Amino acid sequence: MQGRNNGIAIPVFGKIQKKQALLFGTAGFLLFLFFILLFLQASQIEALKQEKAVISAEKYALDLNFTEFRAKSAERVSSLERLNNAKAKEITELKEKIASVEGLLAGLEKDYNELKQAKKTLGEEYALLKEESAQTIKSIEEFEGEIESSIEWFQENAALHDTERQTLAKTSLESRCFLVSGQGCSVKTACLYLVNSMQEYLGLSYIADKGDRLTPVSEFLDKKGGDCEDFSLFFKAELNHFLEKCGNARPETISVEAWTGAESLVARYWIDNQNQWYLEGVQKQSLEAGYVFPAVVCGNIYDLQKKEIAGHCVVALTKKRISGIADVFNELDGAPLIEPQDGSFLGNINEASSLVYLNKEGDSTKHDSFIYWVITDNDFYMFDQESAEWTGYAFFAEKLAALKEKLALLAE
Fold first, then answer.
1. Are 315 and 295 in contact (CB under 8 A)?
2. What is the C-alpha separation between 335 and 348, in angstroms, rounded?
3. What DSSP state is assigned to residue 360?
4. Hey, where are the domains in the chain?
5. What are phi and psi of 362, to 5 degrees?
6. Distance (Å, rounded) from C-alpha 215 to C-alpha 219?
7. pLDDT 10s digits, 97-127
8. Closest among 211, 212, 208 to 225, alpha carbons compared
9. Which pTM was predicted?
């Protein structure tokens, strides 16, 4: 078959072959392009796979990080919740404490105001107390002065001095009654009685006195007598003068001799150094060695003038001088008693020989005949039956001094 092309005849078979070749070329080209595209697509797919793998790995890492982050976040949230709860509890406790402190503060403010008012009241009371303390101290000092004067009075009247009458007493006693030698000293109490009573010497006699006023030795001698306590004070002063003349003699070398009644009414007892004076119907009573220090004791004792147990004073002799309340009972227990108006022996304290008793501190036993006053060379002791206590001027002086010191501290 033949065709025409632009007037040129072309064989049909040749045209078909050209078309086929063109188709095959195109198909080959398209296939090549397909493979190229397929290769490119495969490369892209591989790249996408790798990218996906990377993304998957990153996602996995992110998932792990997120899980870890979420766990840590949860833990932190839990921790924060615990911390928040703890802080909330602390805040609650602090609020409670603040409320408590505010309550305490209110109470303290109330107490402060009350104390402030109390301080003001106390200041006023203190000023008043200070004034009263000063007045009391002044009164105490006046009382102390009185006590000191009283103690000085007893010291002054515990010895014989150099007045005319007292000098006569001393010289008479020294010449007639005292015996002082290198071996010791001795005195007969009856000799003191005669020197005191005989008109050619002191001429003393009993003079009743209203009340219990203690008469100074000088006044007692001037008026030539007094009552029992005056005789006792003077007798004590005479014995102290005797001890002064004995000097440093030991008490056990000093002899004191009194007298008691004798069975024979015609017995004679010589009582002076010259053996010129004597008493009839009596006998000597030597006192136990060492009892030489005189003290006046007063109480319900047999009264020589009244011939009955009544308020009376006599002289007791002790082995050492009484210097305080503790010595009163210790030294006077068992001490011999002398009647200063005649020098007779009356027995021993707290013994059947005298039936005169002395109570010690705390003993409230009541006796018919007992001692309630003791007068020494520097003090005056009294027994209180109610409290069963001994007191004295020095005791009161100590108490007053302590009280004054306390008051002075209050008044500062």
1. yes
2. 5
3. P
4. 15-76, 157-378
5. 85, -10
6. 6
7. 888 878 887 888 888 888 888 888 877 777 7
8. 208
9. 0.69
DSSP-based three-state secondary structure for 4: strand
Report strand pairing: 205-206 vs 225-226.
parallel
Per the model's pLDDT, the better-predicted residue between 284 and 73 turns out to be 284
Structural element, H or E, at residue 30: helix 12-156
The per-residue pLDDT of the chain, averaged, comes to: 85
Encoding tokens for residue 112?
């402060």
Phi and psi based region of residue 55 (left: phi greater than 0; alpha: psi -120 to 50; beta: remaining): alpha
Confidence of residue 80 (pLDDT cuts 50, 70, 90): low
User: Any idea what the Cα angle at residue 388 is, between residues 386 and 392, rounded to 5°?
Assistant: 105
Task: Give the whole-angstrom CA distance, residue 307 versus residue 198.
Answer: 23
Cα distance between residue 261 and residue 281, in whole Å: 6
Q: What local confidence, expressed as pLDDT, does residue 108 receive? A: 80
172-220 residue pLDDT tens? 999 999 999 877 899 999 999 999 999 999 999 999 877 668 999 999 9
Confidence category of residue 156, pLDDT binned at 50, 70, 90 = very high
The whole-number pLDDT of residue 13 equals 59
Task: Name residue, tokens 């030294």.
Answer: 331
Mutual angle of helices 228-246 and 189-197, in 10-degree steps: 120
Residue 164 has a pLDDT of 95
Q: Which two tokens stand for residue 309?
A: 């147990």
- Closest to 288 in 3D by CA, of 254, 248, 315: 254
β-bridge mates for residue 261, sequence order: 282
Is the pLDDT assigned to residue 10 strictly greater than 70? no
Place of tokens 């009541």: 366
Q: Yes or no: say if 399 and 143 are a contact pair by the CB < 8 Å rule.
A: no
If you ran DSSP here, which 8-state letter would residue 370 be given? B
Give the CA-trace dihedral at 354, 169, 151, 335, to 10 degrees. -20
* CB < 8 Å & 24+ apart, contacts of 392-399: 392/324, 392/325, 393/147, 393/150, 393/151, 394/151, 394/324, 395/325, 396/143, 396/147, 397/144, 397/147, 397/148, 397/151
